[in-house]
Amino acid sequence: MIVACGEALVDFTVEQTQRGPRYVPHVGGASLNVAVALARLGVAAAFLGGVSHDAFGRSLRAQLLHSGVDPRYICDRAEPTALAFVRQEEGREPEFSFYGHGTAERALRPHDLPPAFPRDVEALHFAGYSLLVEPVGTALEALGRRERGQRLILLDPNVRPALTPDLDAGRARLEAWVRGADVVKASRADLGVLYTGAPSGEVARSWLARPDAPGPVLVVVTLASDGAVAFSAAGEVRVPSVPVTVVDTVGAGDAFSAGLLEWLYRARRLTRDAVAPLGSSEIAAALTRAAWVAALTCTRAGADPPWLADLKRAFRRTTTPGAGGARRVVE
After folding, report:
1. pLDDT, tens digit (0-9, with 9 covering 90-100), for 119-167
2. Which of 24, 55, 145, 259 could form a disulfide with 293 if both were Cys (CB 3.0 to 4.6 A apart)?
3. pLDDT at position 326, please?
4. Is the pLDDT of residue 203 over 90?
5. How many Å apart are CA 196 and CA 41, to the nearest integer?
């Protein structure tokens, strides 16, 4: 089992109607998206985080259960569900406006954590703004420290500038997370916010484990229409993005993380020692799988990742790059 730890919330995206634009709610949150995507891909997955009893919270639970996510680590909360309003423009990163003070996903505390995980929990995924807000940030840090070295830890910073007013403090906190992770997946946009002006490849290489310091053994950077690139002991591996007709890109980065984890799961590589020696061809295969999962998510409104059957059908189809107005996106 893979446990995704962090936030669940509701995203409102804009839909154009004859009467003009309107906001439509979609189940979301970085960690919930990853858990849902993994379960739909046939991987045993659980979600660990606070979920409200309100109407929005009930829709979050329904999505988790419908997708086959194990609910045992959900923390029931009386606080309301956080809401995010998403504005998207062609060629730009989605802009999020959050309404989330005193909400359920932030309310997770150290005493809400499971005292231990069973042996079948092989990996933990940490992502999203929940790493930087309180009290959930402190709770997740405690969990990460406790499980470090026992299970594969994948980190996705998933930076949200609107929720990181003190960028220096947020960067320092995320760098501590990076040092404790085995695999890091970040977007070029994330790195652009955290390290203004620094090339993303330079930042990624600086994160890799060194003989004298801890750190990840695999760092992946998604590059939107330019595909994705990985850095490891095998060197630098690049793959192109997958051509699709994009509906929106919300949740695509989370789907990419899920696709990467799914590949590691099927290849029986869900340990640090198994990831470290991956060769270039294996890393390319993992990135390609992840890019497909992300691309198919972009063909649907909201964070609605594909099921395994959808992925298999997509692989059977022959796609001509650039046909039908398709554009490449993996971020």
Report:
1. 999 999 999 899 999 999 999 999 999 999 999 999 999 888 878 878 8
2. 259
3. 42
4. yes
5. 35
State both tokens at 153: 């830890």
pLDDT bracket for residue 21 (50, 70, 90): confident
Distance CA 289, CA 199 (A): 25
CB atoms within 10 A of CB 303: 28
Residue 98, strand partner residues: 84
Rounded to 5°, the CA angle 222-26-243 comes to 35
Q: Give, as one character, the DSSP assignment of residue 166.
A: S
Tokens of 196: 């203004």
- Is 174 strand, coil or helix? helix
DSSP state letter for 305: P
Question: How many C-beta atoms surround the C-beta of residue 95 within 10 A?
Answer: 13
The number of C-alpha atoms within 13 Å of 323 and in the hemisphere containing its C-beta is 4
Cis before 306? omega within 30:
no
Query: How many whole angstroms separate alpha carbon 310 and alpha carbon 296?
Result: 8
Q: What is the mean pLDDT of residues 3-23?
A: 89
pLDDT (average), residues 302-313? 93
Query: Could you tell me the two tokens for 136?
Result: 């959930």
Mean pLDDT over residues 66-87, rounded? Answer: 96
The fraction of the chain above a pLDDT of 90, given in percent, is 79
Distance CA 66, CA 36 (A): 9
